[in-house]
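Hi V.,

Quick status before I head out on leave. The structure for the redesign project is tokenized and pasted below; the design run finished overnight.
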């Protein structure tokens, strides 16, 4: 784990030109530490807000989280009990804190600018992609494209064995710093996430194989190293297509009785185009172009 080399979250924020102090009041609060037994109510808005307040969270953001949850259900972007729990347990507002301009917009049905030319994906897309890979507790999951950190935050509520890779060094460092601050605050579930700054095209060889892989940047093919690092019986979700016009695919890898490996692909939006930030390429320590063929 490369956590020792990361600068603190506040230092990274300051380096990025953002007002590092604006979340300090919120961070003074103490959150009831994570446990797999924590079970947010799903019956009424009032019960959910009361439960979250008792954990130490902000009632205004809790109300927005509940309202977005209702929209996710209505739109059929969330369906599994474990993914519902993960959504209700995840403070998106903390991950949107990288940019003060989007902090209050964390629960909007939109992708949001987090700086460095990249975005935090919207809650509907993230819920659907998370549901599709159906993560079970204990499974090893790799995310390519840490970004704001919110996608791996959901995964940290599904398994204690998550890995995430970010190519933009200051962003990866900032998000690691944020996870560590949130762990100190009581969101101890983020101890489940190991992170590094690297080119995710090559996966995370030392930690492979993975039960599930989630790719959050767009590319025109499935990277062979990622397919190789996916277990037989595993699932990957990945946006594939030309720049700005990807389709989000569920890729299943299976092994036949004779040992042969096959893959099948299914579009999780039935053909709808979903534009993603490009899957860029590292040459030395510089990001140069992308991995499209
Ligand atoms: C849509 S954005 C962020 C998604 C993130 N999961 C979130 O919700 O905040 C995609 C991320 O992929 C990162 N990325 C692009 N190419 C990459 C690569 N080759 N390796 C690792 N990360 C990459 C981008 O820098 C960006 O942070």
């Amino acid at each position: 784990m490369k956590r020792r080399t990361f600068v603190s979250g506040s230092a990274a924020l300051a380096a990025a030109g953002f007002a590092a102090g604006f979340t300090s009041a919120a961070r003074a609060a103490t959150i009831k530490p994570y446990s797999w037994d924590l079970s947010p109510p799903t019956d009424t808005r009032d019960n959910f807000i009361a439960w979250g307040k008792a954990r130490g969270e902000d009632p205004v953001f809790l109300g927005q989280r509940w309202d977005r949850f209702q929209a996710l259900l209505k739109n059929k972007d969330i369906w599994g009990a474990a993914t519902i729990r993960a959504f209700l347990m995840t403070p998106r507002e903390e991950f949107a804190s990288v940019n003060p301009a989007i902090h209050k917009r964390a629960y909007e049905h939109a992708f949001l600018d987090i700086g460095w030319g990249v975005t935090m994906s919207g809650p509907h897309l993230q819920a659907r992609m998370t549901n599709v890979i159906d993560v079970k507790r204990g499974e090893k999951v790799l995310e390519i494209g840490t970004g704001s950190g919110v996608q791996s935050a959901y995964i940290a509520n599904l398994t204690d064995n998550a890995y995430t890779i970010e190519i933009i060094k200051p962003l990866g460092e900032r998000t690691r710093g944020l996870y560590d601050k949130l762990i100190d605050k009581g969101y101890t579930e983020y101890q489940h996430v190991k992170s590094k700054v690297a080119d995710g095209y090559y996966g995370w060889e030392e930690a492979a194989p993975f039960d599930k892989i989630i790719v959050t940047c767009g590319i025109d093919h499935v990277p062979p190293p990622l397919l190789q690092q996916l277990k037989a019986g595993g699932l990957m979700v990945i946006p594939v297509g030309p720049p700005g016009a990807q389709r989000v695919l569920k890729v299943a890898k299976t092994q036949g009785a004779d040992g042969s490996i096959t893959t099948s692909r299914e579009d999780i939006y039935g053909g709808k185009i979903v534009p993603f930030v490009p899957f860029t390429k590292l040459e030395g320590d510089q990001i140069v172009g992308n991995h499209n063929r």
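Above is the designed sequence. The longest strand covers residues 230-240.

G. will cover questions while I'm gone.

Best,
W.
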